[in-house]
Design brief:
By secondary structure, this protein is α+β, with helices and mostly antiparallel strands. It has 4 domains: 85 residues, no CATH class; 192 residues, no CATH class; 62 residues, Agglutinin, subunit A, CATH 2.90.10; 92 residues, no CATH class. It contains 5 helices and 33 strands. The chain has a 6-stranded mixed sheet. The longest helix has 32 residues.
Length: 573
Amino acid sequence: MTFSYEKRSPGDVLSSQDWNAAMQEIVRMETAKVNRNGADTLKGPLTIAEALTVSGNMGLGKPASSDVRLDIKGDLRVTEGSINANLLVRDTRDVNDSPTAFDRVVSFDFKKRDVVGAPGEGNFSGMLTLAPWTDNSGDAHHQLNFNEGGIFWRQGQPDATSWDQWRRIPHEGMTSSFTLQGNLGVGLTNPGQALVINSAFNSGRQAGSGMTYGGAIAISSNAPQIDFIDTDAGQGDWAIHVNSSKLYFVREPWNYQDLVLDGVGRVGIGTDTPQAKLQVVGGAIMPSVGNSATAGIFFPTDPGGGGGDAAWLRYYMRSGESGTLELGISNDGDDHLALMASGGVGIGTNTPSDTLEVRGNVRMLTHSNPLRFTSGWSSFTDTSVNAAEISNDTSAYKKLMIVGNRSADNSTRRVGIWDRLDVHGLIVADSGITTPQIRQPNGRFYLALQDDRNFVMYDGGRAVWATGTNTSDIALKEKITTIPNALEKLLSLRGVFFFWKDGALGDEREIGVIAQEVEQAFPELMQTLGKNQKLVQYDKFAPILIEAIREQQQLIQNLQMEVASLKKQLKDQ
């Protein structure tokens, strides 16, 4: 029966019917709490003050299942305490359920590994299924498979009839290999490449490392190596290998001498034992071609400070196939280029016999103003301007030839000697020249050796002096006067013995006159050189002596006439 609560106050009459009904309900409740038969339905909150023991299976929100101790339909919430019980692992070993078989459940199943297609090892596996939602709006369902080969994961959309591919989950202590599909990021999310490592400099250092600062990756081995496998057909594979304090770039199958960096910072190409900062064996060094600081070999600028200092070795084309190999140094006048050879330097020969040997002609100065060094005179014409040559001619002329240029007046070739010329031997005039000459730079005055064996001085083409004869033709002279008072002036001079103060002029006693005394009487005999040194033209004393003798002779004759007159007067007395 249904018992309804009716409140009674003290002193109210209690009927026997009400009393009997209350007592029956108490008895029923006492019996039911020991062995409920499930016929009653509880509505509203249920509070259990003490432990609740259920001897059979129990269903919450649904009838109890025969194979499950607790079967719940709806949410289960535990706000305090914990659930101390084993979760059911279903034995569905021969079934590979699709994602559509799960709807908002967490399921644990016992499976044959090959039935669900999981990688790994062993025949059986445990599998956890997490299906958070009923359709694709809640994203994918997930499964984990645990077997003797490791832990594997796959996913599938709730409405899909098959799962995606299994993927291995790496874990500590794992000894078998695994494949990662997609990108892997260490220290960052959303890596854009297969492997991206984000690590601050020196954020850590592997124990046993000899490096002062730690990097992002450490490979520890008795011979660390990274292999690069080229999957394109016919392409070679490479490796970076460290061993014996050397870093090798190794080309398959094991060509380890291609590129080596040793423990003291030397680089070897073609050798694993470099003897310098860079050593190349079995090949050439090929710098770029061009006439700029980005081509050839360019040395560091301004090694001594300052600015503008540079040195280089370049190969470039001036035009077409016309090339130049240039060795240069720039900036200061005291920058030098030196070839330090213990033997000889050869140009045009690899067996030089001297410090410098050139096989072929040599041209110096600029292209438009060359000085040639040849082994046979090139016989350039008299009209060739700005050309000069020193030739050790062994064919036509058989002599050392110095051939001048005609740039001065554009008429004749010239060779100039600005300092003292010492000749140890004879000076022989070329037989091809009729009258050998010594000329002033302006060409007006010159000394010629003539066929009559006289040296003749010319002034503008006129002979003015000769060793054997002097030009004195009256036809060449005008305003002729006799030297006056020649004897008187000559008697004002002294003939003296003397020694030169400068021993270079001679160290024996000399005879002569005093130039300053001659200048007072005969300034026409004087010349002045540098530092006001005075020279006397001794050869011009001859006409003075002639006139002095004539004057003296006239005096003698006058005296003779006076003596004769006196003798006649005495005789007549």
